[in-house]
Specification:
By secondary structure, the protein is α+β, with helices and mostly antiparallel strands. 51% of the residues lie in helices and 22% in strands. The strands form 2 sheets. A 4-stranded antiparallel β-sheet has the order 1-2-3-4, with no helix packed on it. A hairpin with a 5-residue loop joins strand 6 and strand 7.
């Protein structure tokens, strides 16, 4: 075994991961782009319907102003709304006892695979199954298995800066697709 970490994930770490996933990762950016295109198409259709129904009158043109304002507010405030909705979802999951993550685990990194052990299960994964690795602000390392599942390694699980740097060198040899944010 090359590395072994006792990983403790907090609600804030999970929130930060999901916020990163939606707003900064390639996966989330693609979904955000699609969402914004759909909203734009919807608003253009609603605007055209309003204009045609009222015969392009002055009243209908001025009636579009609130639609345009709401459209821009949605486009601008969506990240804030998403964060709020995510916090609410985490509270609901916590209340039901079905969190989307394991608060405590042990991550072991071998030469050919990584192993995560939680109180509920043990997962073994070859590095070839890792799609990408995201290093975020030198505070978190996200090991993405696919566009939905990731392993979260907070900086707090490293004993020293030297161990962190050594681990980064090691993990760079295991995955070609590493993004630094």
């Amino acid at each position: 075994m090359n590395y072994r970490f006792n990983v403790t994930i907090t609600d804030q770490d999970y929130l930060d991961y999901n916020t990163f996933w939606m707003l900064r990762s390639p996966y989330g950016k693609k979904q955000m782009k699609i969402f914004r295109i759909v909203i734009t198409v919807f608003w253009v259709i609603a605007s055209l319907v309003t204009l045609f129904m009222d015969g392009f009158s002055t009243v209908s043109v001025f009636g579009l102003i609130p639609l345009v304002i709401v459209f821009f507010l949605i486009q601008i405030l969506f990240p804030i709304f998403f964060s709020w909705a995510l916090k609410l979802q985490i509270k609901i999951l916590k209340k039901s006892g079905k969190m989307g993550y394991s608060p405590e685990s042990i991550m072991e990194f071998y030469e050919d695979r990584l192993v995560e052990t939680t109180s509920d299960n043990k997962t073994e994964l070859k590095y070839s199954a890792v799609e990408r690795i995201s290093i975020v602000d030198h505070k978190m390392i996200y090991i993405h298995v696919n566009n939905i599942m990731s392993y979260i390694l907070p900086i707090s699980c490293f004993e020293s800066v030297e161990q962190y740097d050594s681990f980064l060198e090691f993990i760079r040899t295991k995955c070609a697709n590493i993004d630094i944010y």
